[in-house]
Design a protein that fits this description.
- By secondary structure, the protein is of the alpha/beta class.
- The chain has two domains: about 5-140 and about 305-315, NAD(P)-binding Rossmann-like Domain (Rossmann fold), CATH 3.40.50; about 145-300, Dihydrodipicolinate Reductase, domain 2, CATH 3.30.360.
- About 25% of the residues lie in helices and about 25% in strands.
- Helix 1 (about 15-25) links the parallel strand 1 and strand 2.
- It starts with a strand and ends in a 16-residue tail after the last helix.
- Belongs to the NAGSA dehydrogenase family. Type 1 subfamily.
């Protein structure tokens, strides 16, 4: 018998992607999927792509999850902490929400509602030292989707001292699944199709997380809603501290990272290439006019930006190779 895992909040987009990945995982046994408003319904009624899975949603609560060895929390922000506190200490937990990502209570208060729930081990294994930290942890806070996309592009440059930490500008476009599954008028197909629209300009909740993970001290971040279901493309620019080839820095940082791919020179990332994968694609150059460093980063917001990254962390937490049950290759066309 394999490692018993359960998913709380399994009716959402990230929850559905988690179920898909776990159903094909060779070492995890999916024993429970909970969903507040869909309790009693078969999983396939909400996620038709999972027809044949044979699971029924149960009500979200500690009783439905306590028999698992590891629990994934795919709940709305602010909902994970209370449930996690009711789980036995013997149960390992990966939280896909924001509740336990930030170390600074003041940063939490500035961008989120409710009290700060404390800080767990940050679940982005590609950061220096984090692979070992995640493997040793019982509670892990997976990175946010925008944060993962930007951090993987920016953190090595700041760590190497080649990019000024106080002068970073990011523009990132995300598919509509990043906004969750709750019905919202501005996410209707007729509102989104043929349109690009910025939102939460200068005040997105992933700003403090990106700063914490990368060491940036000055960050201007503009998110853009794109007319596609999934995927993120981020353009990250930073002022250099001296002459540098950013590709060399990224290549050295990710030489042993199975899911981060620095593309060949001249080939630029695009979201479709990462669809369904746990990969992040990077490319970098130096702006001919301003001399600024430019890194473009693409990933699947439901894959490496959420469910795939959570499974990667769970693999490490349970002593498995981090690549188990995950693919670095996308689905095309």
């Amino acid at each position: 018998m394999g490692i018993r895992v359960a998913v709380a909040g399994a009716s959402g987009y990230a929850g559905g992607e988690l179920l898909r990945l776990l159903a094909g995982h060779p070492d995890f046994d999916l024993v429970a999927a909970t969903a507040h408003s869909h309790a009693g319904q078969p999983v396939s009624a909400v996620h038709p792509q999972l027809t044949g899975l044979g699971l029924t949603f149960t009500a979200t609560g500690p009783a439905a999850l306590a028999d698992a060895d590891l629990v994934f929390l795919a709940l709305p922000h602010g909902r994970s902490a209370a449930l996690a506190a009711e789980l036995p200490d013997s149960v390992k937990v990966v939280d896909l929400g924001a509740d336990h990502r930030l170390a600074d209570p003041d940063a939490w208060a500035r961008y989120y509602d409710g009290p700060h729930a404390g800080t767990w081990t940050y679940g982005l294994p590609e950061l220096p030292g984090q692979r070992a930290a995640v493997a040793a942890a019982d509670r892990v806070a997976a990175a946010g989707c925008y944060a993962a996309t930007v951090t993987l592009a920016l953190a090595p440059l700041i760590a190497a001292g080649v990019a000024a930490a106080d002068d970073v500008v990011v523009v990132a476009a995300s598919g509509t699944s990043g906004a969750g599954r709750t019905a919202k008028a501005h996410l209707l197909g007729s509102e989104v199709m043929g349109d690009l629209s910025p939102y939460k300009v200068g005040a997105h909740q992933h700003v403090p997380e990106i700063k914490q993970a990368t060491g940036a001290t000055g960050l201007s971040f503009t998110p853009v809603l794109a007319p596609m279901p999934r995927g993120i493309l981020a353009t990250v620019t930073a002022r250099p501290t001296g002459p540098v080839d950013p590709r060399e820095v990224l290549a050295a940082a990710y030489a042993d990272a199975p899911f981060v791919r620095l593309l060949p020179a001249g080939q630029w990332p695009h979201t479709a290439a990462t669809l369904g994968s746990n990969a992040c694609h990077l490319q970098a150059t130096v702006d001919l006019d301003t001399g600024r460093l430019i890194v473009v980063s693409a990933l699947d917001n439901l894959g490496k930006g959420a469910a795939g990254q959570a499974v990667q962390c769970a693999n490490l937490m349970t002593g498995l190779p981090e690549t188990t049950g995950l693919s670095p290759y996308g689905v095309a066309p």
